[in-house]
Design a protein that fits this description.
The complex is a heterodimer of chains A (570) and B (157).
Chain A lengths: L1 H14 L10 H6 L1 H6 L4 E7 L2 E3 L3 E9 L5 E6 L3 E4 L1 E7 L4 E9 L2 E10 L6 E7 L2 E3 L4 E8 L3 E6 L3 E3 L2 E6 L5 E11 L2 E12 L5 E6 L13 E8 L6 E10 L3 E6 L19 E8 L2 E14 L2 E11 L11 H4 L8 H4 L3 E5 L8 H5 L6 E5 L2 E4 L11 H4 L6 E5 L11 E7 L14 E3 L6 E5 L2 E8 L6 E2 L20 E8 L6 E8 L15 E2 L12 E2 L8 E5 L4 E2 L2 E2 L2 E3 L1
Parallel strand pairs in A: 2-8, 10-16, 19-24, 20-23, 31-36, 32-35
Antiparallel strand pairs in A: 1-3, 3-6, 4-5, 4-7, 7-8, 9-11, 11-14, 12-13, 12-15, 15-16, 17-18, 17-28, 18-19, 18-22, 20-24, 21-22, 21-25, 22-23, 25-26, 27-28, 27-37, 29-40, 30-31, 30-33, 32-36, 33-34, 37-40, 38-39
Chain B lengths: L33 E11 L10 E10 L4 E7 L4 E8 L5 H5 L3 H7 L11 E4 L4 E7 L2 E7 L15
Antiparallel strand pairs in B: 1-2, 2-3, 3-4, 4-7, 5-6, 6-7
Classes of the chains: A mainly beta (570), B mainly beta (157).
Chain lengths: 570, 157
């Protein structure tokens, strides 16, 4: 090492010109040492960082000049201005392409080249709730989508990494307001979104159905489904709950025995268009009910039908004391507890009024009456004042109902408990699932094919206490129109929707009614609907049809599950 | 009330006696609620070669204001031997069934169990079938002993 130092020093001495040109090449120094000292060529150095970027991003330029010939340099190209001979400056990258940052100092230029790319677009994200306001009994769908994002993260009422688009079903467990937020990120940045879900307490939309021996004062009933109904003087808290009201999908509107109503209720009378007290005749195959039309708030579960017309059977008001002969001409008087087997009839079939437009347009004999001082004459009745199916007047869950009953074996049961749920496809507890939709015609009927014959006016009627159909080969019970086969019959029929859109077989049993134990109140019984010489079109699927099934009723003028009512689904 | 009559020449005895009649009786005025009365007649040819008797009867049809159609079947001597009804309201069965109305009302009491069923009476003196539900009723009744020879009750509409 000492040897080489010594050699360098000797070389300098020999050349006698080792002054400022230490970094110059030995050849330049040897060719013109004096010229180099007088006019050294400037060396311009410039660099950019980064050398590749995107539009709008910041680029740092750093420069210096060796051997400057002046005190200033000039910027050109992608920048401009007069600059010192050294320095640092930030610039913003311009349009996509190549940006040349040139610095000229004296006669020498140098250029820093920056490649500018188009920037990635900014991400977007959206969140939607459909619906955004639900009850604890309902579900909603949270959907999200994003653009220009590579990852999304949930926060707020949910959390974790999520796909950049998707949806999920939210079933709330509590009442409250819940905010769902999401941040999505990509090369172009990040974006946020949030949406709020309002969850309110669910109204109870279901009530119990009981098939039992009936109210006190009734004996020998079979297959009569009972519910409890609360009636109130309209707009007040003066209310009464009536138990053992017959649940009837074969009629429309609430009818209660006057003798079961407390006088404190004092339900107001409904008048005809002419101002007379309105009387009404409810006609059934097994008889008639006569009484007043009165107004009440009708409540079941948390559902309320406000100020609807109901029939008060056997009303003691002076206007209704005499039963018109055109009412009693329907047959027997059902207006007593023993004859009715119930304290009233809750008609919850497919129609909104018991009569409809024909009674609104004309004074139909045997339905609505204008009454004064015990004398009644047939009268028209506006739709809004007719006896109204309470379900159609509920604020929510008003498009129909679901009746669910447990199975009943051939031995029968002393009692059965079922559930009446209001609304169809409105809440999680009334959704049509695997059931088949059987469209009904304008009369509420469809077609049943039994033993090769099509019965075009068939219906499902919880108010009928058996299967009623014509089969002269089945032995009838003595003295009645029920069937008493020697042993249990296993039968089959095929139901077809009135528009032909669906059909399906129904297997059912008919047991010997008389052989049942006296304590049995629910059983698979049936009876005839006619003589072998009659041309009946009816097949009545009565209460035994409901055992072991979920049966939906969708009312007229409602479309549910893509099908317009009236229809049955089971 | 409008009343349109089509008179059948070979059954002139019915002229002026149209409208509903009580089962088992001669035709009589009923109510006055009909909006249309149609008179038709059929000659039911014997289907058996061993019989040469033709059943002759008339069907008069009334459409009530409600849309319910009522038919009465009257034999050549003017006796109503069968009636039927179909539509959204029940007709006045007391008048339509005449003295057989009480057979219908007393029948319910014979049932072995209380409740609400369809109605089917099949007795030697009268057959009554009533079925359906509110806003869709249908029924028919006839007197077996009064049927014209060769009359098939399954043809009652």
């Amino acid at each position: 090492m000492k040897v080489s130092h010594l050699a360098g020093a000797l070389l300098c001495l020999a050349l006698a010109a080792c002054g400022g040109g230490g970094s110059s090449s030995s050849t330049a120094a040897t060719t013109s040492t004096t010229e180099s000292m007088a006019a050294a060529t400037p060396v311009v150095s410039i660099s950019a960082s980064p050398t590749a970027t995107t539009t709008g991003q910041v680029v740092t330029l750093t420069w210096s000049v060796a051997n400057p010939t002046g005190s200033n340099c000039t910027a050109s190209g992608a920048w401009s201005g007069t600059l010192a001979t050294s320095g640092t400056q930030t610039v913003t990258a311009g349009a996509a392409g190549t940006a040349n940052y040139t610095l000229t100092c004296g006669s020498v230029s140098n250029t820093a080249v920056v490649t500018v790319a188009t920037p990635p677009p900014s991400p977007t994200v959206s969140l939607t709730l459909a619906p955004a306001n639900i009850t604890t009994a309902q579900s909603t769908t949270l959907s999200w989508s994003s653009a220009n994002a590579t990852s999304c993260t949930a926060s707020g009422a949910w959390s974790g990494s999520k796909a950049t688009s998707g949806s999920m079903t939210i079933t709330p467990t509590a009442v409250g307001s819940f905010t769902y937020s999401m941040t999505c990120s990509g090369d172009g940045g990040s974006a946020d979104a949030s949406t709020a879900l309002s969850v309110t307490a669910a109204l109870s939309n279901s009530t119990a159905i009981l098939v039992d021996s009936g109210p006190s004062g009734v004996s020998g009933v079979i297959n009569v489904p009972y519910v409890s109904v609360t009636v109130c003087r309209p707009g007040t808290t003066t209310c009464q709950t009536i138990d053992h009201v017959l649940l009837d999908t074969g009629s429309y509107g609430l009818r209660l025995l006057a003798g079961q109503l407390s006088s404190t209720l004092a339900l107001p009378a409904v008048s005809t268009a002419s101002g007379a007290d309105a009387g009404e005749c409810g006609k059934f195959i097994s008889g008639y009910t006569w009484g007043a039309v009165r107004q009440a708030d009708v409540k079941m579960a948390d559902e309320v039908a406000s100020a609807i017309s109901i029939q008060v059977i056997g009303d003691t008001g002076s206007s209704y004391t005499s039963t018109p002969s055109s009412c009693s001409s329907a047959g027997s008087n059902m207006g007593t507890l023993s004859a009715l087997g119930a304290k009233g009839i809750l008609g919850v079939g497919m129609f909104k009024q018991d009569c409809g437009s024909s009674c609104a347009n004309a004074a139909i004999s045997g339905v609505y009456y204008a009454c004064a001082s015990g004398s009644c004459s047939a009268s028209a009745m506006p739709l809004a004042k007719q006896i109204t199916n309470p379900v159609s007047s509920f604020a929510v869950n008003n498009n129909g109902l679901l009746i669910t009953m447990p199975s009943v074996g051939t031995a029968g049961l002393t009692s059965v408990s079922g559930t009446l749920v209001f609304g169809v496809n409105t809440q999680s507890n009334n959704t049509i699932a695997g059931e088949t939709i059987f469209k009904a015609n304008s009369s509420g009927d469809f077609t049943t094919t039994y033993n090769g014959k099509a019965y075009s006016a068939s219906f499902i009627d919880s108010g009928s206490n058996g299967y009623f159909f014509t089969d002269s080969s089945i032995r009838q019970c003595s003295g009645g129109d029920f069937y008493c086969p020697a042993s249990t019959l296993s039968l089959s029929a095929t139901n077809t929707a009135s528009d032909g859109s669906a059909s399906g077989a129904v297997n059912f049993n008919v047991v010997n009614l008389v052989n049942l134990a006296s304590t049995i109140n629910a059983a698979q019984v049936g009876g005839t609907v006619g003589s072998s010489g009659a041309s009946s079109n009816y097949f009545d699927w009565g209460l035994p049809f409901f055992y072991g099934r979920r049966v939906f009723v969708v009312m007229e003028n409602n479309t549910v599950a893509g099908k317009a009512g009236p229809y049955w689904a089971y | 009330m409008r009343r349109a009559l089509t008179l059948m020449l070979f059954l002139s005895m019915l002229q002026g006696a149209l409208a509903w009649a009580a089962l088992g009786s001669t035709p009589s005025e009923f109510g006055g609620t009909t909006t249309q009365t149609r008179l038709a007649a059929r000659s039911l040819a014997a289907t058996s070669t061993s019989s040469t008797t033709a059943a002759v009867y008339t069907i008069s049809q009334s459409t009530l204001d409600s849309g319910t159609v009522v038919r009465e079947y009257t034999d050549a001597s003017g006796v109503v031997f069968a009636v039927s009804w179909t539509g959204p309201t029940l007709p006045d069965l007391r008048t339509l069934l005449g003295d057989k109305f009480t057979v219908m009302t007393s029948n319910a009491a014979k049932r072995p169990k209380a409740g609400h069923s369809q109605l089917a009476v099949d007795q030697s003196d009268v057959v009554i079938v009533s079925s359906g539900h509110m806003r869709a009723y249908a029924g028919q009744a006839w007197i077996p002993s009064a049927l014209p020879a060769g009359f098939d009750t399954t043809t009652i509409e």
